[in-house]
Design goal:
52 residues; mainly beta; 2 strands; 19% strand; globular
Amino acid sequence: MLERIETSDESNYTGFHRHHFHKILWFTDVGNEEIHSIDFENYPISPIRSTY
């Protein structure tokens, strides 16, 4: 299943929840100092700077 966060139900992304499957997150527009939390660990998300 593919789903855009911008158009999905906000209740899917609030509060603590668990997944019983693998999930790939593909961020296309990231601001400065963004984080994603997994199992109470914060992981930084930063934009990839193009060298072109």
